[in-house]
Amino acid sequence: MLAVPLTTEELLAFGQHLAAVNGEIGDQEAEFAAVKTEWKEKLDGLEKERGRVASIIRSRAEHRFVKCEEVAHFSENVVRIIRLDTGEVVRERNMEANERQGVLRLTKAEKAEA
């Protein structure tokens, strides 16, 4: 093969072809960036989930909503919050003044007198 000088039309055609190729490269780079962002978001989500699960495994416990019940102990003047699944005392606090007030149960006769 030997070098052949290009005509003006050929130079123009190659210039247009180069512009088209540059445009396609730009389109592909933009598509690649969008796909890369999408995959990075997916990967970030998976890595976050991996960290959450690893933390659960390390601590050998998971925080969950557990049904509890407040039980008043008037003799000790405290209220205990007790887990219903295990019976464990989760917290204990002093009774508020309004909680120390007992409820009077009146008989029918006493109600009639009142």
List the helices and strands and how they pair.
Blueprint (H helix, E strand, L loop, with lengths): L7 H52 L8 E6 L4 E6 L5 E6 L2 H4 L7 H6 L1
Antiparallel strand pairs: 1-2, 2-3
- Estimate the global geometry from the Cα principal axes: rod-shaped
- What percentage of amino acids are in beta strands? 15-25%
Number of E-state strands? 3
- Main structural class: alpha+beta
Structure in words:
Helices cover 54% and strands 16% of the residues. It is α+β, with helices and mostly antiparallel strands. It folds into 2 domains: 53 residues; 46 residues, no CATH class. It has a 3-stranded antiparallel sheet, with no helix packed on it. The N and C termini lie far apart (122 Å).
Short description:
The chain is built from 3 helices and 3 strands.
List the defining traits of the structure above.
114 residues, three-stranded antiparallel β-sheet, alpha+beta, 3 helices, 2 domains
